[in-house]
Structure formats: structure tokens, C-alpha cells
Hints:
By secondary structure, the chain is α/β, with parallel strands linked by helices. It is built from 13 helices and 14 strands. The strands form two sheets. Strands 1, 2, 3, 4, 5, 6, 7, 8 and 14 form a nine-stranded mixed β-sheet that branches. Strands 11-10-12-9-13 form a five-stranded mixed β-sheet, with no helix packed on it. The longest helix has 20 residues, at 274-293. The protein is globular.
Amino acid sequence: MYRRSRTAALATVAVLSLALAACGDDGGSASEGGASADGAADTGSALDLADVCPATVVMQQDWQPEAEHGAMYHLVGEGYTVDTDKKTVTGPLVAEGVDTGVDIEVRSGGPAVNFQPVPALMYLDKDILVGAVNTDAAIAAPDQPTVALTSQLTNSPQVLMWDPESQDGAETIEEAAADGDPIVTAGELIPGLLASKGIIDPAQSDQSYEGTPQRFVSDPTILQQGFATAEPYVYEEEIPQWGKPVGFQLLSEVGYSIYPEPLAVRADDVEAEADCLEKLVPIMQQSQIDYLEDPGHANAVIVDIVEQYQTGWTYSEGVAEFAAEQMKALDIVTDDPASGVFGKLDPERMQQIVDTFVPILVEAGTLKNDDVDPESLYTNEFIDESISLGSGGTGGSGDSGE
Length: 402
């Protein structure tokens, strides 16, 4: 199966209301892969989570394992266990080569949970401490409030892509869409944004994308949503019916300003789990930096568990390596431009996100009320201000910034 059916799940995340899938108890297996620990964290140190965090820190992803989730999988230590029924991986939480004294469990999203949105999962199962919640998904779930703690991807990797030959060598979405060809997406958010900016005509919107390459291959005049971290590689290297480059532009360059998959907790847990989050958030900031410096073992975990899960999702070592490189090359992962701190959330950007997307979500019927307070969507309380890609991180200082 083609790997990007997650686009449909993400685009409609706010309106899904499926029940949480029942999970089996069997299907566990152990692996020798994962990050190795040089030793245990010193008691009470910034990397010692044993006395402040749950014995197993449960993190919920919004899709099946992939390199965009590298920071989480980077923390999964050696000897991890895979539950092929529940689609989870559990192992010692190893940060900067140190065993933190707790375990980490990373849960897959998408088909593993009947495509439930992450906020819904977090409120159905209070064992989940941290979830990857797109900013628009947080806005669209006011009855399941979540608070973002730190970004992992600074800018969205989502793109519109096209065939350069069919679109006369177009280099931008506006150029590629100028002849009125269909804009094929899985939901209303992307075409709504582009139409609001005058980049496309609303009549071009075609929301029938189901995540497979068949239509693009058979009708290369269309523009189709995808990810800069996947489709350019997959279409050229892994789809023999295509086998050539695609043109694309990042949607973040034309106003798609959401924070993609920032790490979030239930609103009440900002205070209730503060002692844990004070140490865990800097660990997650540093983990993304460490992953991009050396993605090897996390990518190996991802490829391994995808193979074990047997969901029909495929993910190769090649696309994992490509994704890690694209995240750096295209500034998908950068320090926060406003502060120079990696993972810090920008108040002005949050206000812009609300101003841009709330009207689109209200018009689409996804959101009933346009009274959204940007400050309710995030906190920088636990951010370590000394961590940045420029400095290479701090080695776990644990200092937090307001």
C-alpha cells in the first residue's frame, strides 16, 4: 500500500468521531535494537525521571511510524518490546545516552486507532501523557483541550506537488495552478487557505484524495497534496510507474503556518504533571536535535516496527534517510526564528494561526465558535532556553524559560 493515506486522516481529524479501537493483549515481541544507555541518570539530575514521571511515559503519535516522529523513537532504548496487536513499542527511555529510570511507550495513530484524532485519544485514555497534536487539530477540539509544550517540526512538511512537464516547469503553487487544474486534497483546509489568499479558484478544489498514487500517475495535470519528506523520494525511487522527479512547494511558504505535531498534554496536566514536564520537555527538545545529528538508530526502530506491525503501511530505510535530510535542508526543523530557541512556540505565530484558520474551520462547519484564545493553545513554561540547533543543545541542563 502507498504510504501517504495519512493525509486523509490529518485533513479530517477534527470531524472524525469513531470509537476508540479495542486493542488485543497478544502479539508482543522483543528486539535488540534501539538507543544504548551508557549508564543510569544521577539521582535528581535533569535526566532522572524516575521520581517525577510515570513509570511508563506514554506518547501518542497521529500516524504510523515515520521519520517525522524521529524524536520520540530516538528515545526508545535497547531491548524494546513491540506489541503487534496494539501497534506500540516500549523500551527504556534513553536520553543523551543515559537511562532516565522510566520506560517510554510510543503508540501509533491512524488505522491503529480507527483514525481517532489525538485529542480524543488523550481524553479517552488518561495513560497517554503526551500527544502529537497539530495546531489546527487543537483548535478544532475545544471540548478536548490540549496545550502544546514544544514544537518538534518547526514548519509543516506538507506540500502541493505537480508534474513539472505538465505544468510547463512551474516552480510555485500559484504558477502550477494558474491554468485551473484540479487541486486534489483530502479535506477543505488546504484549498480553503489557498483560495482565501487568491492563489487558486475555489472551483479547483477536489477533496477526493485517498492517499494513493494512481490518480497522479494517470492524470499528471493535477496538483496533489503530499509531504516534502516523502513524496519526492517515493515517486521517483519507489513508484516504477512514475520514476521521475516531481515539482512541489511547501505550504508553509504560502501561509500554512500551523505547528505540525507539537508535543501537547491535556490542559489540566500542565499543572498536574508539571514536575515531570519540567524535565521531559527539555529532553524532547534535545532529542529532536540528536535525532537529526544521527538518525540511524531511530530510523532502524521505525523501519523495524513498521515491518512488524503489518498494517499494509510500508516504510523503507531510503525514505527514512531522505526525510531526515529534507527536514534539515528545507528548514522544516529550525530554531524558533523569534527567540533562537529550538522548540519554543512563538506567541505572534499562534495569534496568526488562530486568525488564519479559525474562519476556515468555522466556514467548513468543523468549528462552531470563533472565540479561540491563542494563549490557551500553548505554554513555554517548560522550555529550556539554552537549547538550540545552533549550539547543538545543552546536554540536559534542565533550565526552563518563561
